[in-house]
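[recover] target loaded
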């Protein structure tokens, strides 16, 4: 009786709808079977009541988590109030039944239907109000200090993240489960020397800021995809471990469709060079006793995937890694390229050897470049896996040295052995560039070097005067490989100082590392696409060769492509009173000079010129945080802005 009276008053518009009061009433809150209430604690009663409410309203619970439906909730409340008054009018009409019986009878039918609809709407809007009131917004003002422990107060609640959450691992994607974080999870040695502050901070982030997100039953998602406005329930698994249950959000970026649409932005290049580990591309030696495919059928699936990837890249020169020693594999790849890309005339070098071992080698378009002599190499530590070739661009006559390499695997040797390989490559370059036929200092060294950016082999090459293009163009955001859920780049692009001025852009093409391994050619989930054709991403470098560049500062910026204006980004929060910028500055070889620096500014602090930006201490808008690391030595630096997990790179000239 209490429930009916309350509903009547609600319908008349004299009381607000409150679902909690309905649940308190005996005829709705009573248990389905008799219990001895003296044996039930107050806490158990509350739990039972909540469980009963959730069971009744579960189908409606998720609907109102969608932000766009919040306005619908408000309009529904207004409609209930209006309809209640109409219902009251129809209720009063029954007293006039004797005068117009047919009309009043129809009014009573309408009254019954309207009453049923109103009851449903009342429950729906009441539940929506509970959801709206209970949802908490999580804001991350400073990503470098935020920890997942900040979620502790919200265990058992539903939250909305005001920062994009990024997929860091998808190995359990077939079960609708992903690992997400406000940033990518990186191998610590890709961010700093072992046990350095940068290394230790990466270790902390990897440990404290990763969450399992479950409950997704929609399409497959790649690592690197972002979830905008993630709405999720916080689940406490243990004292310091939390997981998330999906309730809603918008997916954005790094999809297969995005990569099929375009290559990474490499600037205004004339030559496109690609270094690519094909993950044991074997033709003659198939079977479980060898490194490649186990059967002819598996190899054909691998061939189809690799063929599609190389066609999409469409490079002028390919440096390929993990090829079967001999001519069979490289011949097959070259034939497929020429078939898929009419107008190209790809060719390769024959080595006359057939074996079940691996090698590296070149495939190039003879219409665009021509080799000078034959490839040279060094067999230090392991044979057939370090080669160097000088190519001449036919359109301009410009030359460059291209070195493709495959160092000892991490499981096969220590850093000391890879340091020997690094020294051997540097020594070969210093000798080869003086060859009478070559006489050129423009060098591009690529390949799977099986070591992270801040390990001894790479530092050996950097200390010899070479430049790490990954860090120069992408700072700490670059990767080409995933292992143990951590991203890193072991597929390198390193160049001489002279060559750097002629590099228009460099990037890894993430068609493999961000994929779930189940899509590889030898699995039951394999698909007929270029994705997951290897376990390594191809690395692309754009070149605009020009031997007339001098060693002065100005030519550094000749190949620099930028937009019409320099944009300052609002990062990591969606609502802020003051503009906030995160940025850092690196030398050309990837050594950090300052940052990441978080500043609040008024006006532009970097002055835009025709082909570069300058930073001046006399600028009145320059914040104290920036003045603290000035003046830098005159020269060219790399400036990185951070915008919600994405790095925007510019070259900065300081005179």
């Amino acid at each position: 009786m209490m429930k009916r009276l309350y509903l009547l008053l609600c319908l008349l518009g004299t009381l607000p709808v409150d679902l909690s009061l309905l649940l308190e009433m005996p005829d709705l809150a009573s248990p389905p079977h008799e219990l001895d209430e003296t044996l039930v604690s107050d806490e158990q009663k509350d739990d039972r009541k909540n469980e009963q409410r959730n069971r009744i309203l579960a189908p409606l619970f998720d609907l109102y988590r969608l932000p766009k439906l919040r306005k619908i909730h408000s309009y529904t409340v207004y409609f209930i109030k209006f309809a209640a008054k109409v219902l009251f009018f129809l209720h009063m009409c029954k007293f006039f039944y004797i005068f117009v019986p047919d009309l009043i009878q129809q009014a009573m039918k309408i009254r019954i239907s309207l009453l049923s609809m109103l009851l449903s709407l009342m429950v729906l809007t009441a539940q929506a109000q509970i959801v709206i009131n209970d949802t908490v917004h999580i804001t991350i003002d400073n990503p470098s200090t935020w920890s997942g422990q900040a979620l502790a107060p919200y265990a058992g609640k539903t939250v909305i993240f005001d920062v994009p959450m990024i997929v860091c691992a998808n190995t359990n994607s077939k079960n609708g489960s992903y690992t997400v974080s406000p940033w990518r999870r990186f191998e610590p040695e890709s961010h700093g020397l072992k046990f350095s502050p940068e290394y230790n901070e990466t270790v902390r982030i990897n440990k404290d800021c990763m969450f399992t997100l479950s409950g997704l039953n929609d399409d497959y998602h790649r690592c690197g995809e972002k979830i905008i406005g993630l709405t999720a329930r916080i689940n406490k698994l243990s004292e310091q471990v939390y997981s998330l249950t999906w309730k809603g959000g918008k997916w954005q970026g790094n999809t297969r469709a995005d990569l099929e649409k375009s290559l990474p932005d490499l600037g205004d290049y004339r030559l496109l060079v690609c270094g690519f580990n094909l993950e044991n591309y074997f033709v003659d030696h198939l079977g479980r006793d060898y490194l490649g495919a186990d059967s002819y059928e598996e190899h054909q699936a691998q061939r189809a995937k690799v063929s599609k990837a190389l066609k999409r890249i469409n490079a002028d020169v390919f440096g390929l890694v993990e090829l079967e020693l001999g001519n069979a594999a490289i011949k097959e790849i070259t034939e497929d390229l020429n078939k898929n890309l009419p107008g190209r005339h790809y060719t390769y070098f024959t080595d006359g050897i057939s074996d079940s071992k691996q090698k590296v080698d070149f495939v190039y378009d003879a219409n665009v470049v021509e080799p000078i002599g034959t490839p040279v190499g060094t067999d230090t530590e392991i044979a057939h896996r370090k080669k160097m070739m000088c190519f001449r661009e036919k359109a301009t006559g410009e030359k460059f040295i291209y070195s493709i390499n495959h160092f000892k695997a991490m499981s096969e040797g220590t850093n000391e052995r890879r340091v020997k390989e690094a020294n051997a490559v540097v020594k070969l370059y210093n000798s080869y560039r003086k060859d009478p036929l070559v006489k050129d200092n423009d060098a591009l060294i690529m390949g799977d070097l099986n070591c992270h950016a801040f390990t001894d082999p790479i530092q050996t090459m950097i200390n010899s005067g070479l430049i790490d293009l990954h860090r120069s163009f992408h700072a700490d955001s670059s990767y080409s490989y995933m292992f143990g859920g951590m991203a890193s780049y072991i597929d390198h692009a390193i160049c001489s100082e002279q060559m750097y001025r002629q590099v228009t852009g460099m990037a890894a093409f993430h068609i493999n590392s961000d994929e779930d391994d189940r899509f590889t050619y030898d699995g039951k989930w394999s698909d007929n696409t270029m994705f997951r054709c290897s376990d390594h991403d191809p690395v692309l470098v754009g070149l605009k060769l020009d031997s007339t560049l001098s060693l002065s500062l100005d030519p550094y910026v000749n190949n620099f492509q930028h937009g019409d204006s320099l944009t300052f980004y609002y990062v990591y929060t969606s609502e802020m009173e003051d503009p906030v910028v995160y940025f850092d500055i690196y030398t050309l070889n990837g050594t950090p000079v300052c940052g990441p620096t978080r500043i609040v500014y008024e006006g532009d602090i970097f002055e835009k010129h025709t082909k570069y930006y300058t930073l001046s201490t006399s600028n009145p808008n320059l914040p104290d945080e920036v003045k603290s690391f000035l003046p830098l030595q005159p020269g060219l630096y790399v400036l990185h802005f951070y915008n919600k997990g994405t790095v925007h790179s510019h070259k900065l000239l300081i005179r």
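[recover] notes: The radius of gyration is 32 Å.
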